[in-house]
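1st attempt posting a full record on here, be nice pls
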Amino acid sequence: MACDRLRRPVDGIEWVALGAALVPFVVALVRAGVQDWMPMGDAAYFTVRSRDVFTAHWPFVGAWSSGSLAVGVPVNNLGPMQLDLLAPFTKVSPYLGTGIGSAAINAVSVGLVWFVARRLFGPRRVALVMAATLLLMATFGLSWLIDARPQYGLVLPFYALLWLTAGMWAGVGSAVPLGLAVASLVVQTHFTYVYGTVIVTAAGVIAYTITVMRDRPPAWRRAAGWAAVVLAVCWVQPLIDQFFGSGNLGDVLGAERGGESGPGLGAGVQVLAGGSLVPPFWLPGSIGTFLQPHDGVTLRGAVVGVLLWSAAAALLVLIGRRIGSRVPAALGAAAFAALIGGLAGATLTPVTTEFGFTQQNYYWVWAVGAFATIAL
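the predicted structure (as tokens):
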């Protein structure tokens, strides 16, 4: 079973693969230190507010959201987890500390991908997963790895979440609390990730419950207990704000869109396909042409692309079941859920009159494309 793979010792090639995947973070931070790098623009907000953690001005909600323009009432992003994680670094060094903290979050995300890969595969396939992850990071470039802006800084955590949900589908108990922690970080930090995160996480948790609760009740109870602890820790601050502060969580959940809506299914399909599912896919150089317009992908071509990828994911599930192997089925199911979640996010994320169709709100598409490609 997939859950038994972790009992083997870590192979040398796995250590090398993990080390190679972490090298870009070291390079990015050394370059930042040499060049006296500092966060600029919106990124500087996260420096300032993270330094308010452990003070009288401790933030219990996230940054103000331009989504306020869509719902018609002022709202903040749901929670301050990113600020809490950056605080230990920015307290020591406001500028470089922001880069170190952002790099640490992304490096941990890469480590989680490695962890799940070890639960699902043998050493050589673990190395292949990490090589593909390096390729994804090469698409972003070094500057993304230390950027605190959520549209950039959440791509790798979201990518790690997709792998963790694959672990849930495969019955890996530790993937449940770890996945809920990462999902909480992503959902709290930026609204553009909400649809995809909620869909893939819910699908993974439900699949794990169905897979494990009947056959392995003790494992399910352990996972459920840790999941409850993780959710309580991650969401205590937004709940405190809801009942004793600004009531931001209620404002977000109770708000109705003030005339602003998502781009619609047609444009959503083009965004998802154009960003990662048709040539040049999610490979280096693909970001430069994103949304100019829709990477030149026609609606018909985009629909065909999404349908082909969805069919391939579904076929992988059927193959896994036919040969009696949980891992291929889990990967196919998680890839299919990622495509559905990506389509929902691209279709429903509001497009405001003031900011229009903003590229950076859809960079998570690269995580979907990379995960689906590697899984298949």
